[in-house]
Design brief:
The structure is a single chain. The chain is mainly beta and 342 residues long. It has a domain of 134 residues. Helices cover 3% and strands 61% of the residues. The protein has a 25-stranded mixed beta sheet that branches. A hairpin with a 3-residue loop joins strand 22 and strand 23. The longest helix is centred in the first third of the chain and has 11 residues. The protein starts with a strand and ends with a strand.
Length: 342
């Protein structure tokens, strides 16, 4: 079945809602009869939200407002759509497409409109979403989710599958999601919580916060620090713009910073522990009963608790084993290394 309607001048009056602001949809169309399996959206000046949460009537809502936040009359919106935009919404072979194109390449921002979409669909849906003028929000979806924006943040929750998102103009928040997560931003921080699987997080414009993650995790920033707590599996992280603070680590771990100090509280060392900083100290808390092979080097190495240590030990360098040896612990710092055992 194919459903098609296009807005060049004025669409059928019966489909337009009464509101003209970002709280009341300008237009709503039911998708209940279409069994949507994939969603494709492209808009140049608006946000995109796709939700698969149960209990929602399948539908697409269109929100249109002035870029200054001014209320526009229905007539003003229709005139601008007629003069400046091509907008089409189609459903074909269970794929929803919502496409907005600006007819004028050099239109001034003050004269353009924000055209946003809120879409409610079944949980098992793939997405391909693009906007240059707003944020993207996804929740309660299972599938392949690809999305990008150059003018807003990304927010995701309760996603399962392949998640690939990019933004150059905002922060990223992801929670309660897996299995393959790949997210990056050049304009904000990243927060990831309660996720599992293969996770890759990159930012050049802010800090990174990680909490309750399990899997194979890579997280890097060149514009801020890194904070992490309760990580299982494997974590590889680094910063060139801030300090690193890691707590309740139960994983294989590699962490490096050239922008500050490094603190690591380790509950259990995985296959390896590699720490480095070129501009600060390392405060390292290790499990007292685990067998470890130590290679620690800094301006000074401070500890009075190397029980059962076998190896070489001087003011700047410790190399040897505790508790019979085992997992490798390698820490190098331009400043001091302070070691305690828990």
């Amino acid at each position: 079945m194919k459903t098609y309607f296009t807005l060049f001048l004025v669409a059928c009056q019966s489909v337009w809602a009464l509101g003209q602001n970002d709280k009341t949809p300008y237009m709503t169309k039911s998708l209940a009869a279409d069994a949507i399996r994939s969603v494709v959206v492209s808009t140049s000046a608006g946000g995109i939200q796709v939700s698969g949460e149960s209990g929602q009537a399948p539908r697409i809502e269109v929100y249109i407002q002035d870029n200054h936040g001014h209320e526009l009359s229905k007539g003003e919106i229709e005139k601008r759509l007629n003069d400046d935009y091509d907008m089409s919404i189609t459903v074909n072979n269970h794929e929803l497409q919502a496409i907005v194109k600006n007819r004028h390449m050099n239109m001034r921002w003050s004269e353009s409109m924000s055209i946003s979409f809120k879409i409610y669909v079944p949980e098992q849906v793939n997405t391909d979403l693009k906007t240059s003028g707003g944020g993207i929000e996804l929740d309660h979806l299972k599938g392949n989710e690809n999305f990008s924006t150059s003018g807003g943040g990304l927010e995701m929750s309760y996603l399962t599958g392949t998640i690939h998102g990019r933004t150059s103009g905002g922060g990223i928040q992801v929670s309660n999601s897996g299995d393959d997560i790949d997210l990056s931003t050049s304009g904000g921080g990243i927060t990831a919580a309660d996720c599992k699987g293969k996770i890759r997080l990159m930012t050049s414009g802010g800090g990174i916060q990680l909490r309750n993650l399990k899997g194979e995790i890579t997280a890097h920033t060149s514009g801020g620090g890194v904070e992490a707590g309760n990580i299982e599996g494997e974590l590889e992280t680094g910063s060139s713009g801030g300090s690193i603070d890691l707590r309740d680590m139960n994983c294989s771990l590699s962490a490096n910073t050239s922008g500050g100090s490094l603190r690591a509280q380790i509950k259990q060392v995985g296959k390896f522990l590699k720490l480095g900083t070129s501009s600060g100290n390392i405060d390292l808390e290790l499990p007292a009963r685990q067998g470890l092979d130590l290679d620690l080097y800094g301006e000074s190495v401070n500890s009075h608790e190397f029980n059962g240590f076998k190896g070489t030990f001087d003011e700047r360098h410790v190399k040897g084993s505790v508790n019979g040896g085992g997992a490798e612990v390698d820490a190098h710092a331009s400043g001091n290394i302070n070691v305690t055992f828990n």
